[in-house]
Design brief:
46% of the residues lie in helices and 14% in strands. The chain contains 13 helices and eight strands. It binds 1,3-dihydroxyacetonephosphate.
């Protein structure tokens, strides 16, 4: 997985990571990727087994193994926070150790609510553990807001003030010393809401500060990750791929498609169809990734 994301980084392409808060989303996402010839990650985050229905690391792995396709898919553990979106301390090490033991292809520790030095310490600990098993580790620096309960700050205010943006000097220090393979940054991207009624709300269209991103790319030298991948202006996503973004996380786009179809039809098959169509659209029209899988994988099977 390290090599695949590195190839994306060098080629100006991205690896999209699709979050699956419902297990029956795994099959249509992988089928859509296979039909588009695009490489994707299936991703699960801690909040998805706590606040949604993904059930946990082992159930997602089991579902992934039912549907995985060589050369098309990998499995990623997204956001295991040190302090979570409700400001609670998390016993994060055992969750990350279990993912590595189970055979997840990559993991993310999220120390972004810590101060810089604490974030470096927590990330280094996880990166060392993951690397012993040959698994790459993602970390986060800066505040990608939106997962917290309550309404987010007005988007234009956030964007124009640079609220929560990853600091350039901190990013350099972090990349030099935390040992992470990929770094999630904040440059105008925001997460879709996950709490209460807000989770059904249409996400504000986000933009990216591409000049800031370019500085982060030069300061860090590692593949960068864009969280909050739903609803970002399409031209910004394409430009970001040429400025160091090598992985983009997408949750709200396909979750809301799934939930709306369940509400309207009460039928899981209809919801899977909605996820399939949304994912194909994202891969083809939004990310422009059709037919790129073989280039990213070097035609090799991703099979652990
Ligand atoms: P969106 O819900 O905005 O797509 O963000 C997903 C994400 O970043 C998961 O880590």
């Amino acid at each position: 997985m390290t090599d695949i994301v590195l190839r994306a980084y060098q080629a100006g392409l991205v690896v999209p990571a699709f979050n699956v808060p419902y297990l029956s989303m795994v099959e249509p996402v992988i089928r859509a990727a296979a039909d588009e010839g695009a490489f994707i990650l299936i991703a699960t985050a801690r909040l998805e087994w706590i606040k949604f229905e993904s059930k946990g690391l082992a159930p997602v792995l089991e579902e992934y193994r039912r549907w995985r396709k060589p050369g098309i898919s990998g499995l990623h553990l997204d956001h295991v926070p040190v302090i979570d979106e409700d400001n609670l301390q998390v016993d994060y090490m055992p969750i990350l150790e279990e993912a590595v033991r189970l055979g997840y292809h990559s993991v993310m520790v999220d120390g972004s609510r810590l101060d810089l030095e604490e974030n470096i310490r927590a990330t280094r600990k996880i990166a060392e553990m993951a690397h012993r098993a040959g698994v790459p580790c993602e970390a986060e620096l800066g505040a990608v807001m939106g997962h917290e309960a309550g309404p987010p700050p007005p988007y234009e205010e956030l964007f124009s003030s640079g609220m929560g943006f990853t600091d350039i000097a901190e990013a350099k220090r972090f990349a030099d010393s935390a040992g992470c393979d990929w770094l999630s940054v904040a440059v105008g991207n925001i997460h879709g809401a996950v709490s209460g009624a807000l989770k059904d709300r249409k996400k504000a269209q986000a933009r990216l500060n591409l000049e800031h991103l370019e500085k982060l790319r030069l300061a860090t030298g590692v593949p960068l990750v864009l969280h909050g991948g739903s609803g970002i202006r399409a031209e910004d996503i394409r430009a970001a791929a040429r400025l160091g973004i090598a992985k983009v996380n997408v949750a709200t786009e396909i979750r809301q498609a799934y939930e709306a179809a369940v509400r309207d039809s009460g039928d899981t098959a209809q919801a899977q169809k909605a996820v399939y169509e949304r994912t194909r659209w994202l891969l083809r029209d939004y990310f422009g990734l059709s037919g790129t899988a073989a280039r990213l994988t070097g035609q090799h099977e991703v099979s652990r």
